[in-house]
Task: structure prediction
Amino acid sequence: MTSLKPKTTQTMKPATAAKKLGIYLNAAPAEFQEGVVSREELNALQAEPPAWLADLRRNGPHPRPVVAAKLGVSVSGLARGGVTEALTTAQIDALKEENPSWLERERGVQAEVRKETVRIKEKQEKQAAEQAAKGR
Result:
């Protein structure tokens, strides 16, 4: 016989929830920063974001992974460019408009990384297909 355990609610720290929501934790309301977030609460926030969450996603400040994605560079590329803090959407747009040399360089690096990733994936798929053909 197996005993049925009561289902426990899965919770996470605010930092984890903020990461999953793609927001900068320090810009979130105090009640979000100080409490724990259940899986159900996270799902509700994702399905129907409250005004504060929609505003943060739209205007920022955005965490570095989001800033990097919006600029088309890696998080490491941001650091090499001297961007170490969260940026607002307006600041990101200003950087895109300014297009400093480090941003151009890091976009090139990111494009090369993507090409290499595709090349490796295609090579692995080809090798897998050859192995499957030999196995027949």
About this structure: The two ends are 45 Å apart (CA to CA). The longest strand covers residues 11-12. The mean pLDDT is 89. Residues 57 and 72 are 17 Å apart (CA to CA).
